[in-house]
Design goal:
Strand content: 35-45%
Radius of gyration: 17 Å
Distance between the termini: 53 Å
Structural class: mainly beta
Largest sheet: 11 strands, mixed
Helix content: under 10%
Number of helices: 0
Order of helices and strands: EEEEEEEEEEEEEEE
Shape: globular
Number of strands: 15
Oligomer: single chain
Length: 196
């Protein structure tokens, strides 16, 4: 398995695979500083990386367009700095996002404008969904907010008009302005003392 790593002081604005003398190489254009590592394994068509300073890793499968976030801790806030999201260059291809057990929060704008994403699976360990976390995910149809979530930030799911149903669990005590703007069929758990 060929593996490559990009320097952690560079920002990848575009990327491609290059084949030379029987070997594949990962090619990227570097423009500014980033705070993540990137690597890939050709046998699986998988691109993987780690957010520096955290215990969070991510992987993107080219074969099925699934982005998986795993590890422990909170996904950072990317509001106002979209291009620094490690998975930013794949936003036009990702169909499904899986946030695995151990992740405790989804930072602002983490998946904002993932135009082709249809489904997001959020682990039961997630306690908050940040502002604009999934804003303008226009193809998003399926999302289940887990029972551990207490806060949903402003415009978290704004402009996600294809979401056919979403249930606010009993644990949610704060929903920011416009968090579910344009979503239809919003239900609230009858045990929710704040919104039921």
């Amino acid at each position: 398995v060929e593996t490559a790593a990009a320097a952690t002081e560079l920002y990848v604005s575009s990327e491609s695979f290059v084949y030379s003398n029987g070997t594949y190489y990962y090619s990227f254009i570097a423009e500014e500083e980033i705070d993540y590592d990137i690597s890939f394994e050709l046998d699986f068509g998988m691109i993987t990386g780690m957010i520096n300073g955290t215990d969070i890793t991510w992987s993107y499968s080219r074969s099925n367009d699934v982005l998986i976030i795993s590890g422990k801790g909170e996904i950072p806030n990317y509001q106002g700095k979209w291009s620094k999201r490690p998975w930013h260059v794949y936003r036009e291809y990702v169909k499904k996002v899986i946030i695995e057990e151990g992740i405790t929060g989804i930072g602002g704008a983490a998946f904002d404008s993932f135009e082709t994403m249809k489904e997001v699976m959020i682990a039961d360990t997630v306690e908050y969904i940040g502002e604009e976390a999934f804003r303008t995910c226009e193809e998003l149809e399926t999302v289940v907010i887990p029972d551990a979530v207490t806060d949903i930030g402003e415009y978290a799911f704004d402009n996600c008009a294809r979401i056919s149903e979403v249930t606010i669990p009993a644990s949610v005590g704060s929903i920011g302005r416009g968090a579910l703007l344009h979503a239809s069929n919003i239900k609230v758990d009858s045990k929710n003392l704040t919104y039921s």
